Amino acid sequence: MRMSLMKSPTFNSVAAAPGLVSSHPNPGPQILGAWLSGLGRSSRRTMTVALKRAIRTVDPAAAERLLDVPWQRISLEATLRVRVGLEAAGHPASRNLSLTAWRGVAAAAWQLGHLQLDELQRIRGVKGFRHHGDTGHGRFLSPAERTRLFSRGSNDSIVEKRDRAIFALLLGGGLRRAEAAALTRKALDLLDGVVRVEGKGGRVRRVPLSSPVKAAITAWLVALDPHVAHIFPPLSRTGRILRDRPISGAAVADLLARRSTSAGIGLVRSHDMRRTCASDLLSNGVDVMTTQQLLGHSSAATTLRYDLRPERARRVAVEAVFVPV
Q: Which of 44, 45, 122, 271 is catalytic?
């Protein structure tokens, strides 16, 4: 039987430490709110799910009541228990995301005066999970598959124009699905050919638009009501704008799945488009640092995991090495 995280000696021992307990009966909601406010809008849902995953490994009930968790009692001991619990919780990337969320809450607790700095440093020192075996996960889309995905229907409807513009940003700009969905007219500068993207952690980057991507977006904007602020609003089947708000990231994933399946190329996920973008950039001699900046990765190691270039590309590469035998 698992011990409740909220009642565990892990948290109680830290709560007894001088200077760590607020006069508020439970400053947990304040800490959680401070953590969420430091995240980008597109990241909040993802990171909340990751935090719930971390909590669920030691206290499933608490995962559904994050506001009731006494975050002011977070500690190294609790962190280690969570890490052990995460060992059986899916892919290493998902586990590391959960640890990142957990550390973020610890940082918020420290910022609000509920956690000592040395304890925060010990929490941050807990190692993440290594990627074992083949690091290339996901799918690389061949040129033929991309052509089928982007092929126009018989009537090239308004809905198809919108979807094609979204796909162009995912593939040609390497945007995450939530990043593309949230774009507004103010973020787009077609004259200069760039789009301002707010990524994870509120980090902002400027992504140049290639000619095909720019053309797809322009074709869609011609059909879009100029008074609509969001570039990709939800549409009815007939192309009527339902409301001036962004389409959700989940909706982007759904329309891509439907389109790829109907095109006969199997299921394509939004991150497959992003991985294909990274692979094409690296194949054409773009350095890792530039690719990292375009994709908005905080680490070049993450960018390298997106490299899904076919085996033949590596075979060609090794022939360039001079071996005097």
A: 271
Helices (H), the chain: 9-15, 28-37, 44-56, 60-63, 76-86, 92-111, 117-124, 143-150, 158-172, 177-181, 211-223, 249-262, 270-283, 288-295, 300-305, 311-318
Listed by start position, the domains of the chain span 5-124, 143-311
Instruction: Indicate the pairing of strand 204-208 with strand 188-189.
Output: unpaired
Contact call for residues 217 and 232 (beta carbons, < 8 A): no
CATH C-level class of 143-311: mainly alpha
Whether the CA torsion 199, 251, 137, 315 is positive or negative: it is: negative
Report, as ranges of residue numbers, the positions in the chain whose pLDDT lies below 70: 1-25, 42, 131-137, 154-155, 310-312, 314, 322, 324-325
3-state secondary structure (DSSP) of residue 239 = coil
Q: Quick check: is 274 catalytic?
A: yes
Active site residue 271: yes
**Among this protein's residues, is 7 annotated catalytic?**
no
Give the pLDDT of residue 113.
94
Please say if 65 is a catalytic residue: no
Q: Which pLDDT score, from 0 to 100, does residue 307 have?
A: 79
